[in-house]
Each structure stands twice: as C-alpha cells, then as structure tokens.
Amino acid sequence: MRTAMFSKSMLLLALPVAMALLAGAVLPFQAAGNAAAGRALGHWLWGAFTSLTVSMLVVIAALLIIRVPAPDMGKALQGPWWLWIGGVLGAMYVAGAAALTPKLGAAGFLVLVVAGQIITAVLADHYGVMGLGGKPLSLARVAGVVLILCGVLLVQGTWATASPAHPTAAVKAQEN
C-alpha cells in the first residue's frame, strides 16, 4: 500500500516536470518552423501568422474533442486588464522567434529568451505582480540570474558564431 502511494505521489510530482521539459524541448523546433514558414512565405510576419493560425485551430479542435464547457465571459470581463495580455505577448514571442531565429540560431534565440524570462520572473516574484505571491529578491536569486547571463555569453558570444554550426551552412554562405 505504501509503495502504491509513493509511486502515485512521485508521478504527481514527476508529470508536471516532464510536461514542462517537453514544452521547453519543442521550442527550438517551433522557432525554427516559424522561421522556415516566414522564409517560405516571404516575410517573418507570415511565419508568425501561420504559427498562430495553426495554434488556434489545434486549440479549437482540443476544446471540441475534450468537450470543454463554454467560458464565463462575464466573469472574465470583470477580471483585471492583464487577463487579456497573454495573446498579445504570445504573438510577440512567435513573431520574435520567426524573425530572430534565422539571425541568432535556435540556441542563441532560446538562451536569450530564457534569460529574459528568468530576469522578468525574478522581478515579477519580488514585486508580486499579476496576482503572484511576493518572493523577495535574495543574493542567491541574483547569483542565479548572473549565472544565466554568463550562460548567454557562453552560448551566444562571438566565439560561438566563429564557424558554421553545420557543414552545409558553409556551402550556403559561399553561394550567397
């Protein structure tokens, strides 16, 4: 009995961690796909538009398949203004991925995204914005941010771009 409880509690802890890792693991492919769609369609904004349109269709299909009840729009309209900002910020991220991944590479783009996320999250926690419980800034948290910024320099520094990441990149660069 105790083993069953232990494994159920471990699963309840491990599942969100695994899902978050999977969400992070797909981002390089999303960024590269958005960039490729933008190149194929003639502009990075078309890549962003394509990504967001496909996302909308996938979410609509999931809502229909899972049979999620209709939302309470009255309650949502009474919520704070920032309740609606996710779509705008999501569009900014997708457009940024489509525009910047070809210039920075998937790793360069995402390491800068992660650095921006961590810096902003630490500040949001510290000030308790958007309904988050306040978590004060500490020396350890500042040290973590500094280490992340050092990682950005290591991944994206000029020495990281001195040679092409893939042999075909050198051929494509010579053709241009």
Automatic annotation (TrEMBL):
Residue ranges of the TM segments: 44-69, 81-100, 106-127, 139-159
Alphabetically ordered keywords of this record: Membrane, Transmembrane, Transmembrane helix
InterPro entries documented for this protein: YdcZ
Coiled coil: none
Gene Ontology CC: one annotated term: plasma membrane
Keyword Cell membrane: no
Protein name: DMT family transporter
